[in-house]
Write a structure and sequence with these properties.
The protein has 292 residues and is an alpha+beta fold. It has nine helices and twelve strands. The protein is 32% helix and 23% strand.
């Protein structure tokens, strides 16, 4: 992706790339795509596919200090798709739109060899918080418990009941949905966590030219995750590396952190340098890549 950004910038046709959403005039705009075989398979219910596609795009808008209001939905469907599947997908889209108070304003449907959904979410520009504005001395925080969706996906593969609390965290994820004024004014940098905690911290480190140190003793670990993993070591690994959560990861100046009025978890610090560290040791985690 970085190579693409550099290529477009050198061609003179790119704006300010690299954040969760684009700031265009007075609007925050994001697009997320979900492809069969990569983001979901036959284990994932149709309504979950639609729900997760919308939720992911909406979370990107929240990561910019804004709130999504509208979505445009494009979908590629096999020619022989059943009515049951079609309306199942849109049932999930409807569920997400009602939960996040969204209006569907258009889109496109085309024939495709495999199923995919692309969701464009749009909202007012808001606070315009970027990944590139973390500073040395800032406090690192997250807005929810990490690793739950990754555990839910493993359980789903093992045939667990779809009502299992961890499975539901994967199938129907939450996002930060509290009043933004309780959080955004006190934040220096912010991003969506869907790629996992360490990977997201790497993005902040690269964009802000800082080092990020995660304190494992501060990581909030849900009891259900500890039970599923069976050991603290495996639980930490899943919390640090597992993706598909949609909480927010951010930094806040020490002077402002105590003023945050919504529950967040302090999990580390920002210092001078580069890279992501766990308890002072560089992680070396490479993360997931679509193209290797």
């Amino acid at each position: 992706m970085d190579k693409l950004f550099d290529y477009l910038a050198k061609a003179g046709i790119a704006g300010d790339l690299g954040d969760d959403a684009a700031m265009i005039g007075r609007m925050a705009v994001s697009v997320d795509s979900y492809s069969e075989g990569i983001h979901f398979n036959s284990l994932v219910p149709d309504d979950s596919i639609g729900y997760r596609a919308v939720t992911g795009a909406v979370s990107d808008i929240a990561a910019m200090g804004s709130e999504a209001k509208y979505v445009l939905i494009s979908m590629g469907l096999p020619r022989r798709v059943s009515d049951r599947k079609f309306f199942g997908l849109y049932g999930g889209i409807k569920k997400a739109c009602r939960k996040w108070h969204l209006s569907v304003e258009g889109g496109d449907i085309v024939a495709s060899r495999s199923l995919y959904i692309s969701v464009c979410a749009i909202g007012p520009a808001g606070k315009n918080i970027r990944r590139s504005t973390a500073g040395s001395g800032d406090i690192l925080f997250i807005t929810s418990y990490p690793g739950l969706a990754a555990a839910g996906l493993e359980l789903l593969k093992e045939g667990a009941d779809k009502k299992n609390i961890l499975v539901k965290k994967f199938l129907y994820p939450d996002i930060f949905s509290d009043d933004g004024e309780k959080l955004f004014p006190f934040v220096s940098a912010l991003m969506d966590s869907s790629d996992g905690l360490i990977e997201s911290c790497q993005s902040i480190s690269r964009a802000s030219s800082v080092a990020v140190n995660i304190d494992s003793a501060l990581l909030p670990l849900k009891k259900e995750l500890l039970v599923f993993c069976g050991s603290r070591k495996k639980t930490l690994k899943m919390a640090l590396e597992g993706g598909e959560d949609y909480y927010l990861i951010g930094t806040s100046p020490a002077s402002k952190f105590a003023k945050i009025k919504t529950p967040v978890f302090r999990i580390g610090t920002v210092t001078s340098g580069r890279g992501v560290f766990l308890d002072g040791n560089e992680t070396g985690y490479k993360g997931f890549r679509h193209f290797k």
